[in-house]
Each structure stands twice: as C-alpha cells, then as structure tokens.
Amino acid sequence: MSNASVEVAEYVKALARVQSEVLQNLPDLGSSLASILRRVRAGQLPKDGELANGIEYSVHGNGCLFVSVDGHEVDVDFLANGTPVFDAWRIERFSLSRGVAPVSTAEELTRECRLMVSSGTLEEASGGWFAVKSEGVAADQLIGRGQG
After folding, report:
1. How far is CA 67 from CA 17, 24, 57, 58, 118, in A?
2. Residue 23 scores a pLDDT above 80
3. Where are the extended beta strands (E) located within the chain?
4. DSSP secondary structure code for residue 121 in this structure
5. Which of 53, 81, 115, 141 is the most exposed place for a label (fewest CB within 10 A)?
6. CA gap 49, 57 in Å, rounded
7. Cα 128 → chain centroid
8. What angle do CA 130, 5, 131 make, to 5 degrees?
9. pLDDT digits (tens, 9 = 90+) for 53-108
10. 135 or 70: which carries more pLDDT confidence?
C-alpha cells in the first residue's frame, strides 16, 4: 500500500464524513452537498458560516471549503450536476491541515487517483479532477484499490 493511496483514502473518508455531518445539520440541502452553493447564492445562507455541530464552511467560486471541528480542511468544487470533485492540491491541503506533511507529490496523488479510476472506485470528471464513483464503496475500502 503506497503513501499516495493512504493520502487519497484519508481525504475521501473525510469528505464522506463532512458530507454526512453537513447534510444532517442542514436538512434543507436534501441529499446534495452542492445545494449549499444554491442556498448561499439565493441569500438563504451566509457565504461563510458555522453549523451547529461546529463545522465551518466558506463558499468560493464553484466550491466550498469545510473545516471540521478538529481543524481538518476538506475543500471541494462541484460539477454542474452537483457532484463534488477534488484534485491533488485539495488532498495535499487536507493532509497539511491534519499536521501531516504530504509524503506524496501531486503527480503521485494524481497517478493514485487514476489507478482508483481503473479499479472502479473513483471517476475522473476531467483532467485531474476526481469524484467518488459510487456511494456503495465504503471510503475505507479505497486503501489498496490502486496499485501504487
């Protein structure tokens, strides 16, 4: 198991955890984390805020930065259909927010994500932007899915 596969899996687990916690605290979002963008753009939520469970959020462009109670940063962009997507930079940023210097380079992280695309775990939305392919795949099953 490579360092890159662990770093990608940790980010994806954190994204799943943040998504679950945000949707529990903002039931008006339905089942789409991207609905936070629509609510902010409609003036129904402030651009920056804190949820009852302590998660902070900051909407930017086509995405949102979520900061968990423990200070871990999960940044995502959203496709037009609402799918959250991430790239190597976001994985690196997450690792740094955990106090862990990224061991893998951006190229290694991208290569690992592409291995996970080949194994059916992730999909590449566009050059270097990835999404979890199926909610049926538990995030902890990601480790070892690539070959790196």
Report:
1. 11, 16, 6, 9, 30
2. yes
3. 48-50, 56-60, 63-67, 73-78, 84-85, 122-126, 129-132
4. S
5. 81
6. 5
7. 14
8. 15
9. 999 999 999 999 999 999 999 999 999 999 999 999 999 999 999 988 778 999 99
10. 70
Q: What is the DSSP letter of 46?
A: -
Above 90 in pLDDT, residue 139?
Answer: no
Q: Is 12 within 8 Å of 19 (Cβ atoms)?
A: no
Share of the chain above pLDDT 90, in %: 72
Q: Amino acid identity of 79?
A: L
Of 62, 96, 65, nearest in space to 81 by CA: 62
Cα–Cα dist 4/20, whole Å:
24
**Pairing relation of β-strands 73-78 and 122-126?**
unpaired
List the structure tokens of 62. Answer: 């086509």
Both tokens of 3, joined, read 């360092």
